[in-house]
Specification:
about 290 residues; alpha/beta; six-stranded parallel beta sheet; 14 helices; 6 strands; about 45% helix; about 10% strand; globular
Length: about 290
C-alpha cells in the first residue's frame, strides 16, 4: 500500500488542498487511489501513535488501521492529511525546540505501517507570518511565553526537516513554501494524489482564484486555454503574470502585528528563510518544490 501523508505544517494550506484533491475523488478511485474523509483517520492515528509509546505494535495493528481507514480492498494508494499531525499550534515550541515531536511522530507512523510505501508532504512558510498565525491560533499570553527558550531567529525549517528525516531516513519527503502554493496547486494535487500523468485534474486553480479579481480569473482561464499545459514552468509563468496584474487589493494587505517585529527584523528573518530554503534544497531525500523550474 502506498500512503501519501501531508503532515503539516500548522497554519499553511490547512484543508484547502485536501478539498481540491477530493474534487477528483471519482477519477482517483478508478486508478486505485482513495482519499478517505479525515474523520476516519486523524484521531485514530494520533491516539494509536500516542498509546503505542515505545512499544512494538501488535501484529494485526496495521491491518486493523487500514480496514478502518479504507473501505475498498482494491485500493493501492491512500491520501491522508492532517496539519496537526506533528502537534497542535500551542505545542510547536515545547522543550525549547521547533517542532520537538517531529521525529517521534513520523517514527511512530512507520512503526504502524512498516511494510507500506510512505511518502510525506510538508508545507512550510516564512517564520514571520508563521509565528503570527500560530501565535494567534495558540491563544498564548504573549509571544515570549509562546516561544519559551527560543528566539524568532532560531526558527529554521531545515532543523525540523532534519529531525523528520532522522525519524524516517528512507522515506521521501516533499516540501514546498506556503507562499508558492497558488502557483504550485496543480502540481501539489498531482504529487499527493499520485494520479496518472496524462489525467487532467480539477481544482488546479482553486487557490489562485481566491486572490484574483473576477476579470483576472477570466483572463487566467483564457490564458491557460482548454488544454492542460504539460510544462509546469510555463503554467507557473502564466499564473504569476496574471496574479501580478490582477491581484485583489485585500489579498495583498497582510500586516505583521507582532511585538518587536520592526521592518528590519522582518527583512532579516525573511532573508534567513531564503537561505534556509537553499539548505533544504540540498538535503538528501528531500524534494523542494519551487515554481518556474
Amino acid at each position: 500500500m502506498q500512503i501519501a501523508f501531508h503532515i503539516g505544517a500548522n497554519c499553511t494550506d490547512e484543508d484547502r488542498l485536501l478539498k481540491s484533491i477530493l474534487r477528483n475523488a471519482d477519477t482517483l478511485l478508478q486508478q486505485g487511489i482513495s482519499v478517505p474523509g479525515p474523520s476516519r483517520y486523524r484521531r485514530l492515528l494520533r491516539e494509536t501513535i500516542q498509546n503505542l509509546g515505545t512499544d512494538r505494535p501488535a501484529p494485526d495493528t496495521r491491518d486493523i488501521l487500514i480496514d478502518a481507514i479504507v473501505e475498498d480492498d482494491s485500493v493501492s494508494r491512500i491520501v491522508l492529511r492532517n496539519d496537526n499531525f506533528i502537534c497542535i499550534p500551542k505545542r510547536i515550541f515545547d522543550h525549547g525546540m521547533f517542532y520537538p515531536q517531529a521525529e517521534h511522530k513520523v517514527r511512530g507512523l512507520h512503526r504502524l505501517f512498516p511494510d507500506d510505501e510512505i511518502a510525506l508532504f510538508l508545507s512550510i512558510r516564512n517564520p514571520v507570518t508563521f509565528l503570527q498565525e500560530t501565535f494567534q491560533r495558540a491563544q498564548a499570553a504573549d509571544l515570549e511565553t509562546y516561544l519559551g527558550f527560543l528566539q524568532p531567529s532560531d526558527l529554521n525549517w531545515s532543523d525540523v526537516i532534519a529531525r523528520i528525516k532522522a525519524g524516517a531516513p528512507d522515506t521521501p519527503l516533499t516540501v514546498w513554501c506556503h507562499e508558492d502554493s497558488p502557483l504550485l496547486w496543480e502540481d501539489l494535487i498531482r504529487a499527493q494524489s499520485g494520479v496518472a500523468t496524462e489525467t487532467q485534474v480539477l481544482g488546479g486553480l482553486d487557490q489562485i482564484g481566491d486572490l484574483l479579481s473576477s476579470h483576472g480569473q477570466m483572463k487566467l482561464r483564457e490564458a491557460l486555454g482548454e488544454t492542460a499545459i504539460t510544462d509546469p514552468a510555463v503554467r507557473h509563468d502564466i499564473i504569476a503574470t496574471i496574479w501580478e496584474q490582477h491581484e485583489l487589493d485585500e489579498s495583498a494587505d497582510y500586516e505583521i502585528d507582532l511585538p518587536g517585529f520592526t521592518p528590519a527584523v522582518i527583512t532579516a528573518l525573511t532573508e534567513q528563510y531564503e537561505r534556509d530554503l537553499e539548505k533544504i534544497d540540498a538535503m538528501e531525500g528531500v524534494a523542494l518544490l519551487l515554481p518556474f523550474r
